[in-house]
TrEMBL record:
Residues 18-271 form the Peptidase M14 domain. The keyword Kinase does not apply. This is DUF2817 domain-containing protein. Belongs to the peptidase M14 family. Coiled coil: none annotated. Its cofactor is Zn(2+). It holds the Pfam family Peptidase_M14. PROSITE patterns: PEPTIDASE_M14 (PS52035). InterPro entries: Peptidase_M14. CDD domains: M14-like (cd06239). Keywords: Hydrolase, Metalloprotease, Protease, Zinc.
């Protein structure tokens, strides 16, 4: 069984103070304050609600990497992985030395602190920052573009999280980690910048296939210049979209966070140690494209008062409740289900389900009561 060469280090050195899906500026502020001086910590702007936005820069190399997390406030898994990366770079090792002697890394750990506090995708003005790259109507968008212009990166890592609906291709395999090299034009031309991004993605995929075989996906590369990745790619910087997805039974994304950490380390180490020429383009397109094929839960053979039998497709809605995220089930589809797979299947003809059945089901009342009893995602 393959394990990543950093797995022993990770078990004892990951940033344990960050846990779960609700990660805000308050959670990371003390960590930023404790950073040693070799991390150049700078407040680079403020959000709509005047929360500070920080960058930290480390390394002395000529290869410059810019990365940012929580552009969408409710996509926090990569923020946890970023602080695991910070812990790794803060300790002496041969890998860290290679990275820091060959690379300079600028990290914005939380671009949208208002969205993080409210646990929303959008910012306080209800704008999706990943659709504001051209107009730059929001202060957070201006902050990111200003850092991009000043730092002049050689590579960009655009760090995001994705929903549980995504599968890696047309298979019952959740997209635990997904990647994309954004397009530079509507024709989706395979430019040198995209080829360089593809080369790095292929190397990350080779590693991840040993850990999570067939669970790596590739996003559709439809062009939208309003998106930050498409803009930076079109400006001449090879850009990689990272998407943290669903590992089985890992709704708090702790296992996914570890995999994102490994992927970032492998990507940065590869950049530090190699001249990126744009190889392995064909291997990039062999990564299956993401499809929206998963429910969180399917209830099979649910019987109504009229003795009709239904299959029900259930999703979880993420609800911020007193500083934690609750996963509230709701019925998305009945009878002819639109999606092909589920992360969990409950057959109401099986004994485990029968223990919850006290009467035949009314779709509006009794099934939802069952779901509330069954839902065991603990915070």
């Amino acid at each position: 069984m393959y394990t990543h060469h950093l797995s022993n280090w990770y078990r004892t050195h990951f940033e344990a103070t960050l846990h779960g899906r609700y990660i805000t500026l308050e959670h990371i502020s003390s960590l930023l304050e404790k950073l040693p001086k070799k991390f150049n910590l700078t407040q680079i702007g403020v959000s709509v609600l005047e929360r500070p936005i920080h960058s930290l820069t480390i390394g002395n190399g000529t290869k410059k990497i810019l990365m940012w997390s929580q552009m969408h406030g409710n996509e926090s898994t990569t923020t946890k992985a970023v602080f695991d990366l910070i812990n790794f770079l803060n300790e002496p090792s041969a890998v860290a030395e290679t990275i820091l002697s060959n690379c300079t890394i600028c990290i914005i750990p939380m671009l949208n602190p208002d969205g993080a506090a409210a646990y929303t995708r959008i910012n306080a003005n209800e704008i999706d920052l990943n659709r504001d790259a051209q107009v730059r109507s929001q202060p957070e968008s201006v902050v990111l573009r200003t850092i991009y212009n000043e730092f002049q990166p050689d590579f960009c890592f655009n760090l995001h999280g994705q929903r549980t609906i995504f599968s890696a291709g047309n298979f019952d395999k959740s997209a635990i980690v997904s990647f994309l090299t954004p397009s530079e034009d509507a024709a989706r031309s395979i430019t040198l910048n995209r080829q360089k991004s593809m080369e790095i993605i292929v190397k990350m995929n080779e590693m991840l296939q040993k850990l999570i075989p067939n669970h790596v996906g590739r996003y559709d590369d439809g062009f939208n210049l309003n998106c930050v990745g498409d803009t930076f790619q079109s400006l001449g910087t090879p850009t990689i979209l990272f998407e943290a997805g669903h590992f089985p039974d890992d709704y708090h994304r702790e296992k996914t966070r570890e995999l994102i950490f490994y992927a970032m380390i492998d990507a940065i180490q590869y950049i530090a140690s190699n001249e990126i020429k744009g190889r392995f383009t064909d291997a990039y397109f062999e990564i299956p494209e993401n499809e929206k094929l998963h429910y969180d839960l399917v209830l099979k053979n649910v019987q109504t008062d009229q003795n009709e039998t239904f299959d029900l497709g259930v999703m979880y809605e993420e609800i911020l409740n007193n500083g934690k995220i609750d996963f509230e089930p709701y019925i998305e589809d009945k009878k002819m289900l639109k999606k092909s797979f589920a992360h969990k299947i409950i057959d109401f003809q099986e004994p485990i389900a029968q223990t919850y059945i006290f009467q035949s089901f009314s779709l509006d009342v009794d099934v939802m009561e069952y779901l509330r009893k069954f839902n065991k995602i603990d915070n």
